[in-house]
Predict the 3D structure of the following.
Amino acid sequence: MFLKSRWYSQRLGQEATLARWGTFGQPVLVLPTAGGDAEEIERFQMMKVLDPLLTAGRIKVYSCDSVGGRVWFNRIGSPAYRMKMQDQFHQYIREEVVPAIRMDCQSPDIPIWTTGASIGAFHAAALVCRYPDVFTKALPMSGTFNLMRFIEADHPTDDFRRASPLYFVPHLHGRHLELLQTRYIHIVTGEGKWESLKESWGLANVLGPKRIPNYVDSWGPKWDHDWVTWRAMLPKYLDEWTKPTTPQS
C-alpha cells in the first residue's frame, strides 16, 4: 500500500513529503540521493525489487525529500547556510518524520532502520550516530561521507560538526556513546566507476575507535556507483536482516 503526506516544516523553511510503501513489518527509512525526493526509489525501480519483502510483511519502507542533499549539491545559499541545513534536516527527521512513522506504525517507540546511497548513505549513518535512541541499524550504500570536499569552505561550522559523523563521533561519550555501541552500521560499497572505498573506510575508522559496531563490505570492481548496484544490495541485506528465526526443537 502506498501513502504520501506533505506538510510545512519550520525547521526546513519549506514543505516536504514523506512517502510510505507497505502495511506491516520493520520500518526502514530510505534517504534519497543528492537531488532526490521521497518518490525517487519508486522511479528507479527500487520498490519493485523490495516488493517480496513488502508483500511478506517483513518491512515497511518510508522515504522523505532530500532537502539537505539538494541544498548542498545545488549550492543554494552560502556555505554556512548549506552546512546549517544539514543539521536542520536531521532535526526535521528526528522531530517530524520519526513521530509520523511511529504514528503510522501505531507504536510510540518502534525502532527504525536507515539506509540510502551516496549522500543518502551519509544521512543514514549520521542519523543512527546522532539519534541511537530512535535508529538502531543503518545500511549506508556507496557512501559519500566527507562532504567538506564538495563545498567552498576551509572549515566546518558548528552546525555541520553536529551533522557529520566524521566530526562529532570522536567526541561522543557517556550515555549517548553507550547506546550507540549497541547499534550497528553496515557500510557497503562497490569499487567500480565513481565508487570510493576510501570513503567507507573513512567512516569505519571513526566508528571503530569508539567501539561502535560496524563492518565495511566491498562488492568489488564490477559494481559501480549506480542504481543497478543499489537495487542488488538493499533487498539482499534487508532479506538477511528480517529472515524469520527458526524455533529450536
